[in-house]
């Protein structure tokens, strides 16, 4: 279920664009890694299977980094996207729930890479507190959330607890002045103003694969 | 990195639409659960924060379930979306990798709900084989992949192994006639024709939150 909130239409539009900016950033990082200096919207579209008109439209909002006939400067455009996405500085994260999902997220490459740093996992279980994830992220007591959030200036909280505890955790994160929350629990949360919530629904990916399988079946009939 | 593949533009378009159909399905399921009989595209858009023109456009492709002034019949439209997404029958899944991520996915609500059933987790570790996830999904020997895939007519394989093993697992899944693969390893895979690959990049969600935080900072300056 998508969250119900008070955001304006503008924010949704920019959120869709943000997703595409992340995709462009990955493409540009790859091109940079193979030492490609310039790329046209057409090339980008073809190589990474994107829409070239959409690329030009999205990037037009962010100033001019393209030269007709030469294309975009890969490094400059990448740098600009990094700044636009606000990952030119490190944002600190706390994961609530040190179960399988929390542990997997703590060690997930992209969560502890440029722009983000996982400070700890919070849990209520005395057996888990004091342990570490494989990559060394410590499990800390959940009842110290407010103190830890203040000490480390935590900006993003991740909810990786069962659905039944998710609302309580959301409220506790919001109360601890954490203003952006990523929720993995399959439940609709009552949101607060000024706290950005993003809920991840992994099932969508399976439904997309199912759609592909169904179309392949229909074509084969 | 988005995968490079040989799909046509048409498939990408339909994949984007598919994601939205999944969102509509969740909204309709919610409305059905509160016994709402009809809903207009306008109401859907307002309540769930979607775009009403986009809703009408997406749903127009799937026949006519709307009546002017009354809106869509919630149950009929839902049923139609379920069929369109091919989840009106059960598709069987295998998860490769019984680490934290694999275990979390095995117990993830939406992966063992209407339309999908997780048959098992495969692993090479003798200590893990024979164990079960919390919800009772068994860990089976990876070297029996081909036999298990054939016996249970597995349609979807999920890669939840470290990046270094992901290509090998992809190839083994494809060789076992599994034609749809969901990849969680942060690596670009060499794909085969006739095997649909979807890679999940959870970092995109963090970047979207970072974008929100940055804009809030800029507005507050």
Secondary structure tally, helices of chain A: 8
Q: How many strand units of chain A?
A: 9
* Silhouette of chain A: globular
Residue runs with pLDDT of under 50 for 5 or more positions of chain A: 1-12
Trace the largest sheet of chain A across and list its strands: 6-5-4-7-8-9
Gyration radius from CA atoms of chain A, angstroms: 20 Å
Biggest interface found = A-B, 74 and 74 residues
Helix content of chain A: 40-55%
Give the N-terminus to C-terminus distance of chain A in angstroms.
34 Å
Task: Look at the structure and give the mean pLDDT of chain A.
Answer: 88
Short note summarizing the structure:
Two copies of one chain form a homodimer. Chain A is α/β, with parallel strands linked by helices and 221 residues long.
List the helices and strands and how they pair.
The structure is a homodimer of 221-residue chains.
Chain A: H1 9-33, E1 38-39, H2 41-48, H3 52-60, E2 66-67, E3 71-73, H4 74-84, E4 91-96, H5 100-106, E5 116-123, E6 139-141, H6 145-151, E7 156-159, H7 163-175, E8 180-183, E9 196-199, H8 203-220
Parallel strand pairs in A: 4-5, 4-7, 5-6, 7-8, 8-9
Antiparallel strand pairs in A: 1-3, 2-3
Structural features, described:
2 copies of one chain form a homodimer. By secondary structure, chain A is of the alpha/beta class. Helices cover 44% and strands 16% of the residues of chain A. The first copy, chain A, has helices at residues 9-33, 41-48, 52-60, 74-84, 100-106, 145-151, 163-175, 203-220, and strands at 38-39, 66-67, 71-73, 91-96, 116-123, 139-141, 156-159, 180-183, 196-199. In chain A, helix 1 (9-33) runs antiparallel to helix 4 and helix 2 (41-48) packs across helix 3. The longest helix of chain A is centred in the N-terminal third of the chain and has 25 residues, at 9-33. The model of chain A is unreliable at 1-12 (pLDDT under 50). Chains A and B meet through helix 1, helix 5, strand 8 and helix 8 of A and helix 1, helix 5, strand 8 and helix 8 of B.
């Amino acid at each position: 279920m998508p969250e119900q909130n008070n955001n304006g239409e503008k924010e949704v539009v920019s959120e869709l664009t943000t997703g595409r900016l992340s995709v462009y950033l990955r493409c540009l990082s790859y091109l940079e890694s193979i030492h490609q200096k310039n790329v046209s919207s057409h090339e980008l579209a073809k190589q990474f299977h994107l829409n070239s008109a959409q690329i030009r439209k999205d990037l037009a909002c962010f100033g001019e980094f393209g030269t007709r006939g030469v294309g975009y400067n890969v490094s400059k455009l990448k740098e600009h996207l990094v700044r636009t996405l606000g990952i030119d500085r490190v944002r600190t994260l706390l994961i609530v729930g040190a179960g399988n999902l929390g542990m997997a997220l703590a060690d997930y490459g992209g969560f502890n890479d440029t722009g983000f740093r996982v400070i700890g996992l919070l849990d209520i279980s005395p057996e888990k507190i004091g342990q570490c994830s494989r990559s060394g992220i410590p499990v800390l007591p959940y009842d110290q959330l407010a103190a830890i959030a203040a000490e480390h200036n935590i900006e993003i909280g991740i909810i990786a607890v069962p659905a039944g505890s998710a609302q309580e955790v959301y409220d506790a994160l919001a109360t601890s002045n954490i203003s952006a929350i990523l929720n993995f629990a399959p439940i609709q949360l009552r949101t607060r103003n000024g706290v950005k919530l993003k809920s991840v629904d992994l099932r969508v990916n399976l439904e997309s694969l199912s759609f592909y399988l169904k179309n392949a079946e229909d074509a084969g009939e």
